[in-house]
Amino acid sequence: MATTEPRVIHLDICAYGDLEIALTTSDIDVTYRVSSHQLCSGSPFFRAMLGPQSSFAEASGLRSHQSSSATELNGSLFRITAEEEHGPTALATVLYVLHGRAENIPESVTFENLFEIAIICDYYDCAATMRPWDEIWMGPLRSLTSKPGYENWLFISWVFEDQDVFGKMTKTFSRNGVMVDGEFGVMVAGNVKRMDCHLPQGIIGTIMWNT
Amino acid sequence: MINAYENNSDAMADQRDKIGQEVITACRDFYIKFEGSSSISCRQGGYKECDFIFFGALHKAFKSINLHPSDAELQAHLALDAIVKTIKSAMDEVKQSINKISVSGSSRHYICGDPADEFVWSLQTKLGGIEPLHLMSFSKKPAALEAKSEWTAFLLKEATFSSIQTTGPEIFRLSVCKYGDMEIVLKTNTIHATYVVSSHQLRAGSPVFRDLLGQDSAFVEHNSCRYRQTPDSGLNANSNRGHYQLQLKKDHDLAALSIVLFILHARVQALPESVHFDNLIIILAICDYYDCSVVLQPWQGKWIESWRKHLGSPGYEDWLYVSWVFREDQTFQTLTKKLSESGVVEDDEFVFIVKEEPVRDVKYLSKFIPQMIIGMTTNPKIQYHNILTRIDNNTDAMIEQRNAAGEKMIQAFRDIYEQYNIDNDTTSRCRTMPHSNTRKICDRYIYGELHLGFKAARLLADGLSFRSDISINRAVADLNKLSTVLRLNLNCNIGGYIHSSCSVISTELTRIAQNALTDIKPLPLTTFGRKQAEKQVVTWNSVLA
Questions:
Q1: Which residue in the set A110, A136, A163 is minimally distant from B142, CB to CB?
Q2: What ipTM was estimated for this complex?
Q3: Measured between alpha carbons, how far is B193 from B256 in angstroms, rounded to an integer?
Q4: How far from the centroid of its chain's Cα atoms is residue A2's Cα?
Q5: Are residues B61 and B184 in the same domain?
Q6: Contact B24, B32 (CB under 8 A)
Q7: Residue B469 sits in which domain range?
Q8: Looking at the partner chain, which of A16, A102, A168 has a beta carbon nearest the beta carbon of B294?
Q9: What is the pLDDT of residues A52-75, one digit of tens each?
Q10: d(CA B146, CA B155)
Q11: Does the pLDDT at position A20 exceed 80?
């Protein structure tokens, strides 16, 4: 049986970048060319991984790669790997924001897209750098916060620090919460919706640990 | 796990547990009241029937949600909202049933249903004790606290100031990019500012920097660009290697330049939530100079749209500049027409009279608006600049079209005025009684009104030229007023007769005034070599394209 080759994409987030991020899934293989300066500036995660004080293998690899004069000549750049479960488009969007490339960033995203972006921002700890895009994306979707099926708004409001939505959702969820197999869930239209695994346990509560 | 209890904050499951315990206890207490032998609820003579109704309804409701009054704590499968909803429904039924109790010779049992309402209310009050959680409880600060920094606070927070000597310039250093490879230097008499930046980010965001920093650049800035040692291409911040140094020749505002550089480097955490309109213009000036207004687009909602409601209002004439920088052709056209109609020329400046009384208040256009849009004045320096920059010298700018429309208006009024300057007995303009002796009274009345009206409007002073200190709007308003006076008086009584046929002069004046407004055109951006912005819509699907 013939297997479909994954789509290969090379994206220049920064044309003068000194680093490549690779994201490979079953159907797509994306390489993002980025500036390590911009990643370190906007994300404590990358600062810890690639910064001058870092002792991670990635940092020493990048430094030794930069010191070799061959880098610019043969075009090969130091390469790190992104989490497989991260959305390729969401990762591109976050990287464009980290590089201030407004002309490449979508102004309108769906709720699912925003959730993907929030997962990446949470992972790389770079939600604060998303200003003012987070507001531009969240604004039109705020009317959905009280509708069934949009419980992940709690996670989004946590990541982008939207107190209004966060307060409203935690209040509603506390009133509608049930425990299923020792885990906190919310009754939504007669069904139990489990809390998203990305949400810090501190917000959900301690009961889970006691049962 | 993030500690939710540092601030005494309960998390969601904890709140549910705590309030759930209270709800269960209240349910149990209420339920067992009706198990006793004496009547509890009946307030109309102690009939036991009322208690039976309560007890039966509660029992049925609890059973339907699998809640046992003997439970010590809230069962895992129960949600608080569902419990209260079920009990409220049961209590509504209780009230209906009690109202139907038939007791001969006594009053109905309406008030016996009151405990039902009281119980539901007490449960709802308990649920009201559930609080929204606060981000601060989980070591996160609400974004607004960080973001709402003021314009000056922004600089003070980000930059380091030091003064080498008390009389010398203040030394200002701002690290926009910690790992930057270049320094931008801005020197004035009072301050020497140095910004550490990344040349990559400047080149990516600004075509002007792309040209300035390119290999073939012949710009004066590039000539002053010193390549100290070797470029710091790596992340090693401890390196002693020097930076490119670019000395700007333009006297930019420090805070505005800082903000633009921060945006170009995507360092947006400390940027203010809103900016004053005057500061916005200064930021736009820098973006326009470096041709990077696109980087401001995401900030339009926060910084610009809140000012849009003032577009066209006195004091906000600089919206013309906003529309110029963002290439909003429709707004630009509307404002060039409006400003041409309302502006006057004072001391070679195109100014706008905000109010005359009690204190005269005029507004000058921003110095950043290109002179070619404003137009030529008598200032030879400005005219010279104008000739150099105007795309098409035959095109009118605002002052020119104002002057042209004003002079045309003066000429037309003069023509009418002269028609009534009749110094013989045989000619008359009177249409009502051209052969009567009273015709002269009509002619002289109109001539007198025109003379006094033009004089009051100061339109007779400078021959055929349009006075620089009068706006088109003002002249049009004065002449419309004169037209109204003429029409009303001619329709009443001039020399004992009604001269309604002669009031055509009034229509003529109104037409000429209207023509002056029509002669002033909205000027499109293309007149000055700029096109309407073509916004490329980036969709989710096109991000990876």
A1: A163
A2: 0.87
A3: 13
A4: 33
A5: no
A6: no
A7: 398-520
A8: A102
A9: 776 666 777 776 666 554 344 345
A10: 14
A11: yes
